[in-house]
Structure formats: structure tokens, C-alpha cells
Write a structure and sequence with these properties.
By secondary structure, this protein is of the alpha/beta class. It folds into 3 domains: 2-29 and 355-439; 44-346, no CATH class; 452-652, Nucleotide cyclase, GGDEF domain (Alpha-Beta Plaits), CATH 3.30.70. The chain is built from 19 helices and 30 strands. Strands 23, 24, 25, 26, 27, 28, 29 and 30 form an 8-stranded mixed beta sheet that branches. The protein is rod-shaped. It starts with a helix and ends with a strand. The relative contact order is 0.09.
Length: 654
């Protein structure tokens, strides 16, 4: 039964631990891990600014202060014509959604015509949930034929969430040579953006992201392979690690770059951008001066964009601002994020995240080492070692992040915290259980009351004690030596065990404490460590009941064919020294003094006077009103110069 209880205890403990660890793992993954991941990316992974081959042109607050927002299409036409006519970049990403084209407006028609003439322009579209209708179905059929990629989809297929795009003007769609998705998702709880959506399924077709379409156009290919772990561009052998996520999207962890630092009025300031950025108004003003043939000294030189990738987007303050919270800032412009995605492609540079086996291995090892430290070491030492372990793990995660490999930090630490609390709780409960077992086991060798006295003073155990007035009882089996010679050791042991088993509860009943068993003799103390002002009376009552119990045992043993026994009891009351004697490494809680010796010698006189219960005059003085006695006068006690009186107790008045 005890083994079963122990097994159940450990089983329940393990179950509780795994439940708590699982809950903490889930909560930390949702609420804490994104922020900590952002910290490691910002401090250790994003260690350089974006490539100089990627330039961002942004319609920012300065641009709209000069040219009020929203811009008419002629502004976009001028912006695009600057690059098409003068700058000659290799590819342009237009990260702006065009929702209206007025065929009656010259500015709108000119914009569409400009788009139609730019083979290297990649414009954006956004997917839309909902089912196809009579209007959208033919549109999406044509859209698929023109803008989808040839995707060899080897990954586990999934049902599409999107079936159409947000409606765009037909003139604009027809004019565009390249359209790509600008869909971006952030973490639902923290709002942080980590992973780019590079392939999206709409209906039964696959579409690349704006940066991926730019990369495919630049390399003159429309073919990709999507397996369970990667997007592969066969022509260039580019391998883009990815994760399948909900809503029919394929997500890639971004390798972020450091913020560009600008010098303003002799001071340096970090911008919100991780790539070189130019306000759109400067491009337009430079374009207008170039057309007029009157370039200004501070105009933008078109040669700065030659054979580079340009991304055009907006970063205008307001509720619809195209900004996201990323490791590089709480207002990271969307166009710069698109530039980051493209930068990752052209340099084959991605942030790799540890897989599930590595995550669980780190959690398991950290939790296991922590548990071993808690169980095997003292409190302070274990805490110091665990703290050093956490510092070492922090350094490991930081080093991995610097190599663009992300280990989870907070999840293992969260489980470690549960392990720490659980470990100390488990250790406390186990030690208490073991202490109880030890107390129960030692209680078979020491009196329970002495054990309690030791435990209550566990931090102040030392040699020494005090003087106290107590009553000492000695009992002895008559002629036991001769009886034992006629029996085997096993038979003697069985008789003694049964005899002591009957005597022990009687002594405890009267507040007595068994000090020791001496062969067939019992020495008990009354008055210490259990405080009892009637210790002399209780000692005599105890002896009287012991004699009655021996009468019962004698009859029982005679019936069983065992030898007849008699016992003698001697009792003395007086001052003793009680406490710990021995050495610092080995102590015994006992009583010493003449009172003890006298009690033992009085007991021996039972053989001389053929009595069973003898007490000293000091004990008789305390029991005179409850006992009938016979006085035995002028007894010469060995070791005493003077003779003394002792008393045989015949009867007790309860």
C-alpha cells in the first residue's frame, strides 16, 4: 500500500508539473516570446544597414506638406517617368494600391500609359476574402493567366482562403506588366511583424509577393517550387525557407537590417528606415528641373539609381498609415519592409528559426539541469548555478541570432521557472515526507516524546541539559536469564517483543517516556520531557497497570505453552540531571544521577522480599493518599551509608 501511495504521489507530481509547464509554455509563447525575439533580432541579428543596391522612395510627411495628399495621378506619372526616362534602375516596386482610374481624366490616362510602357515596374494588389461572383470570376480568370506564377507545389496542399483580389480598375490591370501581392501579417497578440508572406494562394493559383516578383522579373523567370520547408527558384537556385500558415499563405522569417543613421545639424539621428530613403518630393522636383533643363545643385542625380532596385511607397501619418511594429521600430514603414524582403532575396540572407525538435531539446535540457540543481544542491548554490546557466543560455541565443539563427529564449526560461518552483516545492514536500518517515523510524528506537523534543530544538542541539525532579521507574522480568537459556534466540525475541509491545502503551498512557530497554528491563521517566506535576502518582499507577497486564500475559502464555513470567518494579522520585550526554557527533538524551541508581537498586529488592512493586520514601510521600502500602524498614541499600525505608505497594485507589 505504501509503495502504491508513493507511486501515485510521484505520478500526480509529474502530471501537475507537465500541466503547469504546458500552460506556461503556451502563455509565454503568446505573450512574451514575440517581444524577446524582437529584442534579440534588434540587438544581435540586425547588425548592418540594408544593401546600397536597394533604395526606398517614400511619400512622407514632408512630401505631402509640399504637395497635399492624396496625390493626383500626374504626381505618380512624374515619379515613374523620372526612373523610366532618366534613372534607369533595374527593377521598380510600386508599393501603392490603385483603386480608381478615371478614363475621362487626362492625368489618369497618362498614368496608365506610363505604367504600360514600363516593363520593369512591379505594382501591388491585395487579396480579398469572399466568393467569386459574376463580376469577379471573369476578372480573376484573366488575372490568373497574366499574373500567377508557375508553381510546382510539392508541399502539403491546403484549401484556399482567398478567391479574388480587391477590385482594381481594368485599365490599370491591363496596363500593368507585373502585379504582385502586398499582403502582410503581424503577430495577433503583440502586433509585431516578423515574417513576410512571399507566396499566396488565391483560388487555385499562386501569386508571389511584390519583392519576390521583383526578384523573378530581374532573373527573367516565372517558375518556383514550393515544398514543405522552402520556396525554390530553380533558375537561380535561391532557397527561401518558409512556414505554411493559415489563410493560404507561405511565410518567411525576415532577416532585418539596422536603421540608417543620418547626420542632421552636426548630430546623428536614427531614421525609421533600414535602407537608404529619399522623400518623393525631391524626386519630383529633380524630375521637373531635368525636364526644363535647369537642374539645381541639390537635385537628386539619376545616376544614383542606375542598375539598382527602387521601391516606391507611402509613409504618411494617420489612421491608415502604412507602418508596422517590427524589431526595428514601432513605426517601421511598410515600403522599407518590402525593401528588406527583396534585400534578403538578392543576398540569399534569411533568418532561420529553430525547429520544434531543437526548441524542445533546449527546453528539456534547461529544465533537467535546473531540476538536478534544485534537488542535489543547497538553496543558494543551486540559485547561483541556475543564474549562471541562464546567462550562458542568453549568450548562446545571442550568438546564434548574430548568425541569423533564432533560438527561443523566453519559452525555455518560462518552463525553467516552473521547474524551479516545482523543484523546490517537490523537494520541500519530499523532505518533509522523508522527515516523517525518519521520525517514525527513529521513534521505534527513541521515545516519540524525546523525538519531538529533539525536533523542536533541531537548530540548538548541543551537549548539556538541566536539573529536574522526576520519577524513575525500573521494571525487570524475574529469572529471565535462566528462562532464556531454555529457549532459542528467536523464541526469546518473540516473548520480549510481545512483552514490550504491551508495556509501551501503558507507560505512554501515564505520560511516561521510555528511556531505554536494557535486555529484559525497562527504564521509564515521568515528569520530563513531558511536564507533569503528578509524575510520582502516574508512575505508580503505570506500574500497577503493568503488573495487571503481566497477569493477563502469564495466563495467555501458559495456555500457549510458553514459560511463566513475573516482573518486579522499582520506583524512586528525586532530582536528576536530564539532557544530552556523549560527544558532539553522537549524543543520547537520558537522565543521570543518584535518583536513577536508587530506582534500579530498589527494583532489585523485589527478589529479596518476594514483592512486585517497591517505591522509595520520596515516592511514597507523593502517593500516600492513593496507595495501600507495607513499610519495609531499615533496608541497607548498596552504595548507601545509611539504611532507608522502602514501601511495597499493595493497591492503588484510582
Amino acid at each position: 500500500m505504501k509503495k502504491l501511495k508513493n507511486k501515485l504521489f510521484y505520478l500526480y507530481a509529474v502530471l501537475i508539473y507537465f500541466v503547469l509547464a504546458s500552460v506556461m509554455l503556451i502563455l509565454s509563447a503568446i505573450y512574451l516570446e514575440p517581444e524577446m525575439r524582437s529584442f534579440f533580432i534588434d540587438r544581435f541579428s540586425a547588425d548592418k544597414i540594408g544593401s546600397s543596391d536597394v533604395v526606398v522612395v517614400v511619400i512622407d510627411d514632408t512630401s505631402i506638406s509640399k504637395y497635399p495628399w492624396p496625390w493626383a495621378k500626374n504626381m505618380y506619372t512624374e515619379l515613374l517617368d523620372f526612373f523610366d526616362t532618366y534613372a534607369k534602375p533595374k527593377v521598380i516596386g510600386f508599393d501603392l494600391l490603385i483603386s480608381k482610374i478615371n478614363p475621362m481624366s487626362k492625368a489618369d490616362v497618362d498614368f496608365v500609359n506610363k505604367v504600360s510602357k514600363m516593363d520593369n515596374l512591379v505594382s501591388g494588389f491585395a487579396p480579398e476574402s469572399g466568393i467569386l461572383d459574376e463580376t469577379s470570376e471573369p476578372f480573376m480568370k484573366k488575372f490568373k493567366q497574366k499574373y500567377s506564377v508557375n508553381a510546382d507545389y510539392q508541399a502539403l496542399d491546403f484549401n484556399p482562403y482567398y478567391y479574388k483580389t480587391e477590385m482594381m480598375p481594368a485599365l490599370y490591370v491591363d496596363a500593368s506588366k507585373n502585379l504582385a501581392s502586398v499582403k502582410i501579417n503581424s503577430d495577433e497578440v503583440s502586433g509585431l511583424f516578423f515574417a513576410a508572406i512571399n507566396v499566396i494562394k488565391i483560388g487555385d493559383a499562386y501569386y508571389p509577393s511584390l519583392p519576390l516578383r521583383m526578384y523573378l522579373w530581374e532573373n527573367n523567370t516565372n517558375d518556383i517550387i514550393v515544398d514543405d520547408n522552402n520556396i525554390i527558384v530553380p533558375k537561380t537556385n535561391l532557397v527561401i525557407p518558409h512556414t505554411l500558415i493559415k489563410d493560404s499563405m507561405v511565410s518567411t522569417n525576415l532577416k532585418f537590417y539596422d536603421n540608417v543613421i543620418y547626420k542632421i545639424n552636426d548630430s546623428y539621428q536614427k531614421s525609421d528606415y533600414t535602407h537608404y530613403s529619399i522623400p518623393a518630393y525631391k524626386i519630383i522636383e529633380s524630375y521637373r528641373n531635368l525636364k526644363k533643363g535647369t537642374p539645381a545643385p541639390d537635385d537628386i542625380n539619376p545616376e544614383a539609381f542606375k542598375d539598382k532596385a527602387v521601391l516606391i511607397g507611402a509613409n504618411v501619418n494617420g489612421p491608415s498609415a502604412d507602418v508596422l511594429k517590427t524589431p526595428k521600430g514601432s513605426r517601421h514603414p511598410g515600403v522599407d519592409i518590402q525593401a528588406t524582403m527583396y534585400d534578403n532575396f538578392i543576398h540569399n540572407e534569411f533568418l532561420h528559426t529553430a525547429g520544434v525538435p531543437v526548441k524542445f531539446l533546449s527546453i528539456f535540457l534547461l529544465a533537467l539541469i535546473t531540476f538536478i540543481c534544485v534537488i542535489r544542491m543547497r538553496f543558494i548554490k543551486s540559485l547561483v548555478l541556475i543564474l549562471l546557466l541562464d546567462v550562458l543560455y542568453f549568450i548562446t541565443v545571442a550568438l546564434c541570432a548574430s548568425q541569423n539563427y533564432m533560438l527561443s529564449f523566453i519559452n525555455p526560461i518560462a518552463v525553467q521557472l516552473v521547474t524551479l518552483i516545482f523543484g523546490y516545492s517537490f523537494k520541500f514536500i519530499s523532505e518533509n515526507r522523508n522527515k516523517e518517515k525518519i521520525k517514525q523510524a527513529m521513534g521505534k528506537y527513541l521515545s516519540q516524546d524525546i523525538m519531538k523534543n529533539v525536533v523542536s530544538n533541531i537548530d540548538d542541539l548541543k551537549l548539556g541539559g538541566k536539573r529536574a525532579v522526576v520519577t524513575v521507574l525500573f521494571s525487570d522480568i524475574r529469572g529471565f536469564t535462566s528462562l532464556s537459556e531454555k529457549m532459542s534466540a528467536e523464541e526469546v525475541s518473540m516473548i520480549l517483543n510481545e512483552y514490550f509491545s504491551e508495556m509501551e502503551p501503558i507507560i505512554s498512557k501515564y505520560n511516561g517516556v521510555i528511556n531505554k530497554f536494557i535486555g529484559d528491563a525497562v527504564m521509564a521517566i515521568f515528569g520530563e520531557p513531558i511536564q507533569d506535576i503528578n509524575h510520582a502518582q502516574n508512575a505508580v499507577k503505570c506500574a500497577y497497570e503493568m503488573l495487571k497486564t503481566v497477569e493477563y500475559l502469564r495466563e495467555k502464555w501458559l495456555y500457549e505453552g510458553k514459560p511463566k513470567i513475573e516482573i518486579g518494579v522499582g520506583i524512586n522520585t528525586g532530582e536528576v540531571f536530564i539532557g544530552n550526554i556523549g560527544t558532539e557527533s553522537r549524543m543520547e538524551y537520558t537522565v543521570i544521577g543518584d535518583t536513577v541508581n536508587l530506582a534500579s537498586r530498589i527494583e532489585s529488592y523485589n527478589k529479596v522480599y518476594k514483592t512486585n512493586l517497591l517505591v522509595s520514601s520520596s515516592t511514597y510521600a507523593a502517593i500516600a493518599d492513593i496507595a495501600d502500602v507495607i513499610k519495609i524498614s531499615e533496608v541497607q541499600i548498596r552504595g548507601k551509608a545509611k539504611k532507608m525505608n522502602i514501601y511495597e505497594v499493595l493497591r492503588i485507589d484510582h
